[in-house]
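hey m, so remember when u said the tokens were messed up on ur end? i reran from scratch. heres the input so u can diff it against urs
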Amino acid sequence: MPGEDSGAVDGGVGPTPILDWDHPLVRSLAERVTPFRDGDPVTTLRTAHELVASAVRPVYAVDDMQPISRTLSRGRGSCSQRMAVLEGLARAHGIATRVRGIVVDGRFWYPRFRQVPFLVPARVLLAWPEFRVAREWVPVGEIFGTLSEMEASGGSGFSNAGGETLFDAVARTAVDWDGLTCSPGVPSPCDLSATVLTDLGRFPSRDELFARHGQTLCGPLTTLADPFLSRWAPPAVTSR
């Protein structure tokens, strides 16, 4: 069942089982964002992103339903888990969040697993956060600038190879799931629309997205794989 049309989904600011921002660990990190707010939600989001990037090192964890307090206690997390922490910090500061459900072709992740591509599922469900700013919903890929601005500043796009992750890439370049950075007859290196298999629409929270569509890996596989993958870091950031 797809999510509702984008205009019909309000999102929210309350804690959820995944976005447990009322936990002391999350509140403590949220307090580090407060001095930089200045009443500007965009500054809040950018500062929160920088804090998450430094506080949670990237690994290939697979439990998308892990509470953000658990991610912070571990000090490591997948792209999805780090984005969830960012959502939690936003909600802690009264910025409503929701997610877009995007099913991405598993081959998009092959560059990260060249030796073991068989480990990558054929379809990967991605929860792409959006934030309510000045009565508009801003995707996580545009909190540092519009897609056109980000394309101009980091036009090489995101290759999904090496140490850079999707979470880190949004601060540098356009991450375009819809082909919006393309001009007629002119492809864009930032265009990832060819990797999108299904757009599931918007959901009030990542909890609801995963409740309705499940995680990429089923429960037993997540239980088996996460202890190993949650300690496996991208090569360029192994020493972080």
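this time it looks ok to me. The domain at 6-218 is CATH 3.10.620 (C8orf32 fold). if urs says something different then somethings off w ur setup not the seq
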